[in-house]
Amino acid sequence: MSRRCVVTGKGVQSGNNVSHSMRKTRRRFLPNMQTVSLLSETLGESVRLRISSHGLRTLEHRGGLDAFLLGAKPDDLTPELRRLRRRVEGARAAAAAAAAAEAEAPAT
Question: Does pTM top 0.85 for this prediction?
Fold first, then answer.
């Protein structure tokens, strides 16, 4: 399992532990990764993602999972999120086509 956020790209950083005597030993700074289930309003189902807490705040700030995916450039998204974006776009197009067909149908 990767220690990289699919939303923000945050990953592992390295640095030093510094003791009182200024002796330095190597250490790793790990991102605060969480496995969350986010509701996709367009798909009508929950999607499990492993993202950082900062990534979760980013999604909420941008209006939810669907708004984030549709507002981002496809080149900026990971392959996993690109596949999810295509599913959301397809479901949105199918819903729009169904609404247009319903509006075209004569009322009886």
Answer: no
